[in-house]
Design brief:
It contains 6 helices and no strands. It has 138 residues and is mostly helical. It has one domain. The radius of gyration is 17 Å and the shape is globular. The two termini are 27 Å apart.
Length: 138
């Protein structure tokens, strides 16, 4: 059951990205081009996602446990660490350079575009490299 719910959530997320055209790297790059052809649509999509998430968290955490697990899995680390900041910076740099982040890239995977396949391969290599660097193995 948890896998089916995760699959459904992924499908809904991917469909939302596609409907909002956030799978289009030009949307992101135009959002970052504040001195040129600026497109604020990404900000509206983010604001909508944050509003829904805020409401969802308030409702879900009223429950004693999730529907398909024994407990909520919340990160224990609450501090802002160098690792967190470096990871966020690398994510942002990659997003700005490529115009796409992991969610839209996975949603775009169905197109089999070479640039999307290259992005997914680079993302996977980066994830494996980070695990290896941290000493966790692959």
């Amino acid at each position: 059951m948890p896998i089916a719910i995760a699959l459904l959530a992924g499908i809904v997320f991917g469909a939302g990205l596609a409907i909002a055209d956030m799978v289009n790297p030009a949307r992101v790059l135009n959002f970052l081009d504040v001195a040129g052809n600026w497109d604020p649509s990404l900000a509206f999509v983010m604001a909508g996602g944050l509003a829904i998430t805020a409401i969802g968290y308030r409702l879900i955490f009223r429950r004693p446990s999730p529907l398909c697990a024994e407990a909520f899995h919340i990160p224990a680390e609450r501090r802002i660490t160098l690792s967190l900041v470096a990871g966020a910076a690398l994510f942002g740099i990659g997003w700005g350079l490529a115009g796409i982040c992991p969610g839209p890239a996975l949603a775009n995977l169905a197109t089999l575009q070479p640039k999307i396949l290259a992005f997914i391969a680079a993302m996977a290599a980066g994830m494996l490299g980070m695990r290896t660097w941290q000493g966790r193995g692959g």
